[in-house]
Specification:
The chain has two helices and eight strands. With 131 residues, the chain is α+β, with helices and mostly antiparallel strands. The protein has one domain. Strands 4-1-3-2-8-7-6-5 form an eight-stranded mixed sheet. Strand 6, helix 2 and strand 7 form a beta-alpha-beta unit. The longest helix has 11 residues. The radius of gyration is 15 Å and the shape is globular. The mean pLDDT is 93.
Length: 131
């Protein structure tokens, strides 16, 4: 079996993330049954539940309020590919160059997602690890 993991992020509220995790467990096979819960430093009631699922396909059912993300371990940066591409354009004078090296230290402890206007950089802190 191909052990293909996909990192997901489900948006939730501080008051209900535990029930959200229970619903996620019914929906996906979660790798190591481990969930990392981050809070938005600026809006503590907003939380982001991250977890790895085992996925055989690129296409898989999506749990509500969930996006696929990537993580840069060294700086604890969570990001979508679209957001990273936008950062490259922003830092590289509007030019997308896949060889451009992002300075991840600028985005330590952050969730970077696309939104309005272009990208949202949300400061995060680890709230809880749920097993």
């Amino acid at each position: 079996m191909n052990d293909k993991r996909q990192l997901l992020c489900t948006f939730s509220l501080a008051t209900s993330f535990k029930s959200t995790i229970e619903e996620i467990k019914k929906f996906y096979t979660v790798y190591n049954n481990c969930f990392f819960v981050f809070s938005n430093v600026n809006v503590p009631k907003e939380v982001f539940v991250t977890y790895n699922i085992l996925s055989q396909d690129k296409e898989f059912p999506k749990f509500p309020n969930t996006i696929s993300i990537h993580r840069k371990k060294q700086t604890n940066t969570l990001y979508t590919l679209n957001a990273m591409n936008q950062i490259i354009k922003d830092e590289n004078g509007g030019v997308f160059d896949k060889n451009f090296s992002v300075n991840w230290n600028l985005y330590t402890n952050a969730l970077i997602i696309t939104g309005t206007p272009a990208i949202r950089i949300i400061p995060i802190k680890l709230l809880e690890i749920v097993n």
